[in-house]
Amino acid sequence: MLIKRSEARAGKQRLAAAYAGLSSGGLDRRAFLKRAGVTGFGLSALGAIPLTTVRPAKAGPVDISKPITRVKNICTHCSVGCTVTAEVQNGVWVGQEPTYASPINRGTHCAKGASVRELVHGDRRIKYPMKLVNGQWQRMTWDAALGEIGEKLMAVRQASGPDSVFWLGSAKFSNEGAYLFRKFAAFWGTNNVDHQARICHSTTVAGVANTWGYGAQTNSYNDIRNAKTMIIMGGNPAEAHPVSLQHVLSGKEMNRANMIVIDPRFTRTAAHATEYVRIRPGTDIPIIWGMLWHIFQNGWEDKEFIRQRVYGMDDVRAEVAKWTPAEVERVTGVPGAQLRKVAEMFATQKPSTLIWCMGATQKTVGTANVRAYSILLLATGNVGKEGTGANIFRGHCNVQGATDFGLDVTSLPAYYGLDENAWRHWSRVWGVSYESMIARFDSKAMMETPGIPTTRYFDAVTMPVNAQTGLAQRDNFKAMMVFGHGGNTVTRMPEAVKGLEKLDLLVVADPHPTTFAVLANRRENTYLLPICTQFETNGSRTASNRSIQWGSQVVKPIFESKDDYEAMYRLAGAIDAAAQKRNMTFRMQAEVFKDLEIKDNAPTAESILREINRGAISTGYTGQSPERLKLHMQHQDKFDLVTLRAKDDAPAEIRGDFYGLPWPCWGKPEWRHPGSHILYNTNLHVKEGGGTFRARFGVERNGVSLLADGSFSKGSELTDGYPEFTTAVMARLGWDAELTAEEKASIQRQGGTASWATDLSMGIIRVTMEHGVMAYGNAKARANAWNLPDPVPVHREPIYTPRTDLIAQYPTLSDRRGFRLPNIGQTVQNRAKDLAPNFPIILSSGRLVEYEGGGEETRSNRWLAELQQDMFIEINPRDAASRNIRDGAWVLVNGPEMPQGKAVKVKALVTERVGAGVAWMPFHFAGWFMQEDQRSKYPQGSDPIVLGESVNAVTTYGYDPVTFMQETKVTLCQIRAA
Amino acid sequence: MARMKFLLDSDRCIECNACVTACKNENEVPWGINRRRVVTLNDGKPGERSVSMACMHCTDAPCAAVCPVSCFYTTADAIVLHDKDLCIGCGYCFYACPFGAPQYPRIGNFGSRGKMDKCTYCAGGPQADNSEAEFIQYGANRIAEGKLPLCAEMCSTKALLAGDGEVIAQIYRERVQRRGYGAGAWGWRTAYRETVAI
């Protein structure tokens, strides 16, 4: 290639040299750069880089004499939704060009986005289906693999029931894949179907939806350009969402805005802040209450906004009164004067926005945290306008869409829940009888009971079945179907190993083997199915700001990989064949794929989206037809950078639309609703994307109205609060007469009554919109959410806290049950109290810019892997000095729940980035497990270039009471020199 | 003719490394060779600042001055390129370069390092534009296609600018005036013997 060298020698060296980085002390990027200084790299430093050179030029150069096709797709890494323009020649992806037309990324990428082309060259992808035979990977055909899997699934179903199979889906699915997977699980007859949202923003969804209606980012990345003050709390977008920083820094520069970062760690984002507040991990609520204390004390709150649009703020005042500056400083370590300054900026230099990520959510108090954040926004009137809002940065590229489509143990697609109404609605959409759906489940009760979340799957394998003290379903998990999910992303990995080893069947369907394939000592009944990336198929994905973007297939699936649609379609067929062999009447394929267009053994993405458009009414996923989405991708340059609105020079069929038709996009595609850029924005007509807070929680509580008071969206005929619309409300207002004959007939077919969300004709939405009224009602947001364990958030010490003196005053919640399982947080906290002296350092985890999620895909990408070759732990110089630990040296880290004598071995990065008493590890590594190198357990040639210890081998017990979100941000550890 | 330069706004750089992988992607640069890299100063401390570095395509380039075989040449756009067929891998340019740009495939002394490799400003080498021979030795030639270097085009926060020196200096000037601060065009005094006056 670039450097002439003997091919044969280089070929042999490539692997060896890649590994050399691990074993011969290849320096991590940060340490390397530190030592190298700025001007000139010493040759000694150069020598430490594992050198290897030649790789056959498979792709380039682009032959400019031959035609090049340009295809647009969306980056498959984070939720920003950067457009990727691929240059394809001869069926090969030969180049990547910047996409200046995209209003989201304007040509730019981060390290991951700029290297996605490598994913479909994929040296280290799974190339064909495989299974473990006596501990060795053996190649097989798709038909044989699916046949055996179908057999084993039916065996489990027969012996243990449908709930014994865990369907783990993915935030990397397209919307269509996510929806199909949820539907698949429903037809299998279980609610045990989950995905990564459980471990990233499940608490956001629960907390925010319980506050004002929808659990999603209220504004957008672009809209941050309008903010005058922004607080980034519990997030590091400079590494996790780098392209978002383009908007954040532009806003900061253009408005001379305040950019405040509140975090235990001085992150790369904090380096660009105007104010940095270092807190003790796990004290978010005292910080927010401490800010509100100053706000209420000085009368900086938005009194009119609270009066019109917020319920229960007085209950918050009572709690906030306890958080005097002295108490806040005692608990969080933040001086009162600094917090006063931040509070004043946030409340008085408006518009203000609060940006958060997993630092807020991955906590035992995650739901309460995001509730407190939302309440701060409400108290200062910073919701529903430009430059304000809860700018929640989601994680994976389609975690928003996969959440919306109910890859979730608590809901059917589009947040309908699991009650009878929900099942009846979706049965109608699917064209099957409700009774036939009940027959697929163990019982109607199980059909309406939330399933087991991914944070606890291994407990569901190993825990005794007992409705009071153990697992509350017929039998344990016996089989696990893992589509697009890493095995190192869930806490308590030593326990996970035990669970995985006990499973009768483990199927990993993924472009890469993932940690699941190697973590446990399985020798049989383990299958790998090669699934292609989203670049090798079609489909839409929803970015964090709810904009939906259509990705077109760049190249055909490489090797023998298939897309998710085909894998599911053929798996359904294999299950049917196995059922037939057993003389069972159970069938999947004909019913699941009934109304879908099947082409080449797979349903088309377009036909799946059309089915979504018919059914996902509650979230306004109905106006985004494939045709409209494709037009948006085609005319990206016509959308305004800040307002995201298609300008006057745009073609008529998209003019006035918001980019990507951010949901809710009400009604039928032909109505041309523009989508909703900013949620709950009363300054716009509902037909123009305006809205109100949703009336989800009734009309009054204890004699106090829950409906808005004198606030309404622009042009509304109802000038006060109103409940959500049903046929009964329509009749009372006399608006039912305005329904067309066709709409009336449709409602009649449904049994004569419907709510706005179950009315398949969408007549209720159409008529209410004509009156300028929001079909979902116009209510107050709830500062007091009485249905949650803590209606008003209160501080609770982490389960494993070094401040054992605070446990008595701020204990975790009492032991309880949820999701068919016990949650014994308090028992563990009481035990942890005695362990704390032996584990004096707080351990937190987070993200690196080069890697994504569990990291298998990105650690297999040679352009990314080169930049980050070692798993490390950040440790403060004071803690390092007292332990005799030097920068770059190996250290052993162990946690209070690890098996006796075990530890993880990582490199020390001695830095002031973390405070004294705090350590931090990235969570993307796997392949070493408690000092065991598992490289040999990967199928040959599919091992990631970089392996390392997983932080989750050290992390501990701790689950949010509402969503069973795991605690990854605060636990304890001990570190010693290796 | 334009005078092509790089300009790095260190107040914007977040060390996302997009420039690094964009370069790898576009030029198929092998493992171990880093034509561009991001350096962070005061890592983890207040005042932390990141700088993306590659060959700056200097005025009167010092690498060219010390090269014993005169393998360097400057294009009409003032891009500093070199001829690998002439390079003897002596490493003098590495010592002369104030930015650490030259890279070598092997470690060793006196010509055993292999042919020097460095940022070409995505302008290829002496062979015919966009020929296979050019790509194999030097990587892409975007300049010949009328495009700018991919590292700058893909920079996540638009911290790294590439293009005609006057144009990018003006973009930076306006940016600094609007926001009220700016650490200056990093490396310009060394590379181009001038600074961007605000």
From TrEMBL, chain A:
PROSITE patterns: 4FE4S_MOW_BIS_MGD, MOLYBDOPTERIN_PROK_1, TAT. Residues 68-124 form the 4Fe-4S Mo/W bis-MGD-type domain. GO terms for cellular component: cell envelope. Gene3D superfamilies: 2.40.40.20, 3.40.50.740, ADC-like domains, Dimethylsulfoxide Reductase, domain 2. Its main location: other. Its cofactor is [4Fe-4S] cluster; Mo-bis(molybdopterin guanine dinucleotide). It is found in: Cell envelope. Belongs to the prokaryotic molybdopterin-containing oxidoreductase family. This is Formate dehydrogenase subunit alpha. The lineage of its organism: Bacteria, Pseudomonadati, Pseudomonadota, Alphaproteobacteria, Acetobacterales.
UniProtKB/TrEMBL annotation, chain B:
Transmembrane segments: none annotated. Coiled coil: none annotated. It holds the Pfam family Fer4_6. Residues 4-34, 78-107 form the 4Fe-4S ferredoxin-type domain. SUPFAM superfamilies: 4Fe-4S ferredoxins (SSF54862). InterPro entries: 4Fe4S_Fe-S-bd (IPR017896), 4Fe4S_Fe_S_CS (IPR017900), ET_IronSulfur_Cluster-Binding (IPR050954). Keywords: 4Fe-4S, Iron, Iron-sulfur, Metal-binding. One of its GO terms (molecular function) is 4 iron, 4 sulfur cluster binding. It comes from the Bacteria. This is 4Fe-4S dicluster domain-containing protein.
